[in-house]
Amino acid sequence: MTAVTESPSARRIRRGGVRSLWAGNPQAVVERGVRSARSGNLAVVVSGFFEPVLYLASMGIGLESLIGNVAFGGHDVSYAAYIAPALLAVSAMNGAIYDSTWNVFFRMNYGKLYEGMLATSLGPLDVALGEILYALLRGLVYATGFMIIMQVLGLNLAWTALLALPAVTLIAFGFASLGMAVTSYMKTFQQMDWINFVLLPMFLFSATLFPITQYPGWVQGVIQAFPLWHGVELVRGLTTGILSPAMWGHVAYYLVMIAVGLLFTTKRLRALFLD
Fold first, then answer.
1. pLDDT single digits (tens) 77-90
2. What's the confidence (pLDDT) of residue 155?
3. What is the C-alpha separation between 256 and 214, in angstroms, rounded?
4. Predicted confidence (pLDDT) per residue in 31-72, tens digit
5. Which of 16, 31, 80, 249 could form a disulfide with 60 if both were Cys (CB 3.0 to 4.6 A apart)?
């Protein structure tokens, strides 16, 4: 097979200006990801969906008779209705993180996929945005399936639960953007273990399974810096119908997260493969 190389003129175009970053074709990267998922092991793709479902079945339904109602926003809600939206946010995070970290790590360091992509007309921003959008798509699929389960079990308590899907899309976008940015700096599988090291405590302590008020004040401050906590609070407010102005702060947090992730990923891809 003949190696694909860039012409000197193409390299000159890439070194400066908007065309060095963006060709306006991130959908090509998304389409490649969808085709790859169809031809791969669907069991691996679907497995990330079942983790929050099992948590809901074992804890939300199993412990509800023991715990009873939980206070949220000055109202009492059932324990299952309390943790279900948190697990919905976790489902979106899981789908987005898996594709934007482990899959990206393999494509970048072993598959050499991005070198081939950037040898075409695609720019670093096309590749970054395309990969992030594909990870977002996977997170949205997970979240939609979980949302259907919540509806069947009667855990969506207000019509505002319809807005939970746009909310989890925002959550998936945020985690996918930041996940790919972090992964672009990883060189070994041992370094990738740090991602799970961060995700597990964030899942356990982001007010997913019990209220944040159970912690000391200084611990609450640390938890409120976690991105998952903002997602949990946003989705929980929408599915229960207990709305507050603070929800706009959660939205702003994710918008900043997305912007930072896209910026660092684009700069990193350009530094790795074009400069």
1. 999 999 999 999 98
2. 92
3. 28
4. 887 777 666 555 555 666 677 888 888 888 788 888 889 989
5. 80
C-alpha separations of 20 from 24, 118, 274 in Å: 11, 10, 9
3-state SS class at 46? helix
Residue 130 has pLDDT above 90, yes or no: no
Integer Cα distance of 271 and 198 in angstroms: 26
What length does the chain have?
275
Token pair belonging to 253: 């947090």
**CB neighbours of 25 closer than 8 A, spacing ≥ 6?**
121, 122, 126
Instruction: Find out whether 236 and 85 touch, Cβ atoms under 8 Å.
Output: yes
Q: CA distances (Å), 102 to each of 74, 108, 143, 194, 269, in order?
A: 40, 10, 20, 12, 16
Long-range Cβ pairs for the range 54-62 (8 Å, 24+): 55/83, 55/87, 55/90, 56/80, 56/83, 56/84, 56/87, 56/149, 59/83, 59/209, 60/84, 60/87, 60/155, 61/153
- Which two three-digit tokens encode residue 195? 């991602």
Q: What mean pLDDT, rounded, does the chain reach?
A: 83
Q: How far apart are CA 201 and CA 206, in angstroms?
A: 8
Average pLDDT over residues 234-250: 96
